[in-house]
Design brief:
Elements lengths: L1 H44 L16 H21 L3 H8 L12 H7 L7 H10 L12 H13 L1
Amino acid sequence: MNMQENRDLRDITRLQNNMNLAQQQRAAGQATAAMSAASGIAGMAGLIKPEEKNGDDSGVTTSSANQKAASNAQTNLLNLQNQQSIVKQLSRTAPPTAAVPGATTLGQYYQGLGQSLPSKQDRAPLYEQFGLGSASSYEGDELQNIELLEQLQNQ
């Protein structure tokens, strides 16, 4: 009986090995088929030459659309640069923060900072900001300029 069991075990092992070999061959065949299909698709992709037109056949080519977009971007940039930005408004009204020893006039004060004297319209918001009066009441007279200079020097 032991001999029969050994034969049965050998037959089962041989059948199992044959099944394993068949599965490996099938898997290798599927991998080869997938690689062939991918290679074929890649080869065909090189043959495709898309037209440089939009899908609506309006006659607008991609290059002309790109040129128009670049032109629009340039125009929008120029428009933004021409508008008054918040940064420009702040730099106009923000008071300088350094004292200039010996300055007795606003002109000397700004010269000591290495700047030119701002216009009366540019100084008016500072006058109001320091609580010296409204910007519309600032006329740039001697008394108002002295008050403004004192505030600038003492901040």
